[in-house]
């Protein structure tokens, strides 16, 4: 299964979720490939301490090397297709080749986790097109949800079903929206709530996933729960529901013009 992990805006913990989900699924005995699909930033590669690996996805997307020559096995057991920090490599990359690259190796793995760039752009359209499922990462604040709704609409146009929503960084003073409100707006199920956890930041500084850094931390346990849901049956695809109108929700909908 190919899962694109995406967010409507940056800074919500998308890459942390991608890396942590990949490591967690590996702990459940699954063979997992994590792809650093944000070819301009290399954030996923940094979390796996592979941002300096050559060849990388850049060389694959420029047609210089075969994709299997750019896949590396991390000590967690996760296979990683990293992106480098090279600006020249980025300029040479053809993102339109990504679907062919992913499909060439997808059957070798139980799960392919693609860390997509944040926002709605041409690159995102390619990431949605190649995916079997979309996993949305949001924080419980209005602008994150606004952008996520737009991203979900784009996924629907591409024919990519929503697997569900990861509600991240819960517990910060955002004037937070509640889980029920978020599900009503996105019309998708919140699979897991990941609490604000200092271990996430500490892990990133050490270039590792939070599960590798501290498996018993609150965030790690949330990601392990997410992986257990995805790896089990049934696959968590939330059907759209009809919700009662509520005044607060109406205000948000007017803001979204939906």
TrEMBL record:
SUPFAM superfamilies: P-loop containing nucleoside triphosphate hydrolases. Keywords: ATP-binding, Cell cycle, Cell division, Nucleotide-binding. Gene3D superfamilies: P-loop containing nucleotide triphosphate hydrolases. GO terms for biological process: cell division; negative regulation of cell division. It comes from the Archaea. This is Cell division ATPase MinD. It comes from Methanocaldococcus fervens (strain DSM 4213 / JCM 15782 / AG86) (Methanococcus fervens). Residues 2-146 form the AAA domain. ATP binds at residues 9-16. NCBIfam families: minD_arch (TIGR01969). InterPro entries: AAA_dom (IPR025669), MinD_archaea (IPR010224), MinD_FleN (IPR025501), P-loop_NTPase (IPR027417), ParA/MinD_ATPase (IPR050625). One of its GO terms (cellular component) is cytoplasmic side of plasma membrane. GO terms for molecular function: ATP binding; ATP hydrolysis activity. Pfam families: AAA_31.
């Amino acid at each position: 299964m190919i899962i694109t992990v995406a967010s409507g805006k940056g800074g919500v913990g998308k890459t942390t979720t991608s890396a942590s989900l990949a490591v967690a699924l590996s702990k459940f005995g699954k063979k997992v490939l994590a792809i650093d699909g944000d070819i301009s930033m290399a954030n996923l590669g940094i979390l796996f301490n592979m941002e300096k690996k050559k060849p990388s996805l850049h060389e694959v997307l420029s047609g210089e090397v075969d994709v299997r020559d750019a896949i590396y096995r991390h000590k967690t057991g996760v296979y990683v297709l990293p992106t480098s920090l090279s600006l020249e490599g980025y300029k040479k990359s053809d993102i339109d080749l990504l679907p062919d690259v992913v499909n060439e190796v997808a059957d070798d793995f139980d799960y392919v986790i693609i860390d997509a760039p944040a926002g709605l752009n041409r690159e995102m359209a390619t990431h949605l097109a190649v995916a079997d499922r979309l996993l949305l990462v949001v924080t419980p604040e209005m602008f994150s949800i606004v952008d996520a709704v737009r991203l979900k609409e784009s996924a629907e146009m591409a024919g990519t079903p929503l697997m569900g929503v990861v509600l991240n960084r819960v517990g910060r003073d955002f004037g937070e929206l509640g889980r029920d409100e978020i599900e009503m707006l996105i019309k998708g199920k919140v699979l897991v709530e990941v609490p604000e956890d200092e271990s996430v930041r500490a892990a990133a500084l050490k270039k590792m996933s939070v599960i590798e850094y501290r498996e018993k931390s609150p965030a790690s346990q949330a990601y392990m729960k997410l992986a257990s849901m995805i790896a089990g049956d049934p696959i968590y695809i939330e059907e759209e529901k009809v919700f009662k109108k509520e005044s607060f929700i109406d205000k948000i909908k007017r803001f979204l013009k939906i």
